[in-house]
Amino acid sequence: MLNFAPVEAWQPSVVDTFERTSSGDLLALREQLKSNLSNTESEFLTMLNRFDIMRRSLNQLASIPDNWNQYGSPAPSARSIVSARQVLDSLQSESLVPRRVLPSAEGGVAFVYLSETENRAVIESLNDDEIFILLYDRRGNSKTLDWSESRLTQQNLLRELRDHLRGTNLAAS
Amino acid sequence: MPLLENEVDISVEFAPEEPLYRRALASELVDGELVVSSLESVSFGKEVSGAPSVLRGRFAKPIDALHADCAGGKDVSRHLVYFILVRDLPDVIQTPEGNAFEFYPLHKPEPTCGAHSVIASCLAGDPTRVYAKPSRTVRNDLRAKLAVRLQRVVDMI
């Protein structure tokens, strides 16, 4: 009778051979490489997972009402959310994971970045179609960068964002 | 209870040491930090009434910021209260194009919230202080400065 047998998972028989014939140094190196590979995969999957969470949070912003903050701020428009989704795609291609996605008090969507340094940033996609990156620090310095449709310009903007989050001095930039 | 409109005197000038109170949603803090986008109402409308709202300390206690009478009748009792001193408001912010905007507190009482005020703006040097909506760069700079200068009211309530 025919029956289906799933492919067996990779067995360490080859490794066993390797263990029998290799030196202690090579074994240590192998363990190090395995560990690095495992960490790399984990970081990558964690990043994908975080972007997935961001996308779901973004979808939830579509259902918040006007005056969500009791200060009269408008709800994010459908257009601002669509634009924010495109920005998020660009952020993912540069592995720049925002800490949070929030409604903006200005009306729209905001991606928030904190860092280990005193530097902070938000990217806002507003209801009036404005999109910008606001770099700022805990001393109150700031710099606004207009978003661009150009892929090349986006890469430059996101490079500046990355440098900022790594601690580049805003006053000097 | 917050003072009513007819219980405050708008001719009293703001003192440099006077606190200005604002609310913030706890859920909008990021890692416990007030960030630019979570700073509620740091937006500017076409009219001065659309400028960022605050309660002036001369006529309000911090807890008044959590009263429905100062929130359009809404329940804001779970919000947090922050303050900034008048002297810590940024006075002039320059634009890259060469314009400069001044910021100052303006007492604009509401019927059930006499301490209601706004952080108004005008072109720097305008003696009439006609309200002028700042450019995006200036607004963002103001938001950044407020986000880092606003302090949580902890012991005052």
Provide structural commentary.
The complex is a heterodimer of chains A (173) and B (157). In chain A, 45% of the residues lie in helices and 18% in strands. Chain A is α+β, with helices and mostly antiparallel strands and 173 residues long. In chain A, strand 1 (100-104) and strand 2 (108-113) form a beta hairpin. In chain A, 30% of the residues are buried. Chain B has 157 residues and is mainly beta. Chain B has one domain. Chain B is 9% helix and 24% strand. Chain B is built from 1 helix and 7 strands. A 7-stranded antiparallel sheet of chain B has the order 4-5-6-2-1-3-7, with helices on one face. In chain B, a hairpin with a 5-residue loop joins strand 4 and strand 5. Chain B is globular, with a radius of gyration of 15 Å. At the A-B interface, strand 1, strand 3 and strand 4 of A face helix 1 of B.
Instruction: For the record, give the distance between the C-alpha atoms at the N and C termini of chain B, rounded to a whole number.
Output: 13 Å
* Number of DSSP-assigned strands of chain A: 5
* Helix amount of chain B: under 10%
- Run of helices and strands of chain A: HHHEEEEEH
Oligomer: heterodimer
Q: Major sheet of chain A: order of its strands? A: 1-2-3-4-5
Largest sheet of chain B: 7 strands, antiparallel
Could you say which overall geometry of chain A the principal axes of the C-alpha atoms support? elongated
Radius of gyration over C-alpha positions of chain B, nearest whole angstrom = 15 Å
Listing every helix as H and every strand as E from the N terminus to the C terminus, the arrangement of chain B reads EEEEEEHE
- Summed up, the helix count of chain B is 1
The Cα radius of gyration of chain A reads: 23 Å
